[in-house]
Amino acid sequence: MIRIIGVSLIASASLLFGCGGAQPEATTEATPAAQPEAGTQAEDGEAQADRGAKLYAEHCASCHGASGEGDKAPAVVGKSALPLDPPTTAKGRTMQFKTALDVAQFVVKNMPPDKPGSLSESEYWDILAFDLKANGVDVAGKKIDATTAAQINLH
Ligand code: HEC
Predict the structure, then answer these.
(1) With contact defined as beta carbons under 8 Å apart, do 143 and 48 qualify?
(2) How far apart (Å, rounded) are the C-alpha atoms in residues 26 and 8?
(3) Is there an atom of ligand 1 within 6 Å of 111 CB?
(4) What is the number of the ligand 1 atom nearest to the C-alpha of 56?
């Protein structure tokens, strides 16, 4: 279990922190034959979102609102949150948010604005897990990483 998480984090790191906008093919080879049991996965997904809620409060809520409803910055929770195209007010975002992985890539490169990339990869994944849960996205209890995030279509 621990080994599998380790492998997927390494894959995430290369996806998120790799140079340019290249889309590496690393995700497929990083999936080992053995998969954790569904029950274990569900627990992991819940725990991850709980950790993410705390991290969100600490690092993101001051601008995006306590419940992600938006404040000094666009909403990240709610019906109009995470729109496919950048909001008309966007200054930084030019990319579309097709999948949860797109959101992760934007966030790691740009958030928080004064210290982009200052959280660890696992902390960014935890926050994304929280944000998906808060938006009612059904992730089937899965832990969010580069592989699962790429499979979550937001629109
Ligand atoms: C100091 C204020 C501030 C903090 C703290 C902050 N953000 Fe942001 N965030 C912004 C602003 C401003 C934008 C709009 C950027 C743009 O597109 O020009 C934004 C945009 C975003 C977007 C894209 C929204 C959209 O619809 O285009 C996401 C997702 C996001 N932030 C997530 C986060 C996360 C996760 C954190 C915590 C790790 C965080 N932000 C911390 C100010 C902040």
Answers:
(1) yes
(2) 10
(3) yes
(4) 37
Is residue 113 within 6 Å of ligand 1 at its C-beta?
yes
For range 138-155, the mean pLDDT: 94
Q: Would you say 99 and 78 are in contact if contact means Cβ atoms under 8 Å apart?
A: no
CA atoms within 13 A on the CB side of 80: 7
Residue 73 near ligand 1, beta carbon < 6 Å: yes
Q: CA triplet 143, 17, 149: central angle to 5 degrees?
A: 25
Q: Is the CB of 60 under 6 A from ligand 1?
A: yes
Q: Could you tell me the distance, in angstroms and rounded to a whole number, from the CA of residue 7 to the centre of ligand 1?
A: 28
The response to whether residue 100 sits with its C-beta less than 6 Å from ligand 1 reads no
The one-letter code for the residue type at 52 is G
R_g (Cα) of the chain, nearest Å: 15
Say what the pLDDT of residue 45 is: 87
Rounded-to-integer distance, Cα 82 and Cα 137, Å: 12
- Dump pLDDT digits (tens) for 83-114: 999 999 899 999 999 999 999 999 999 999 99
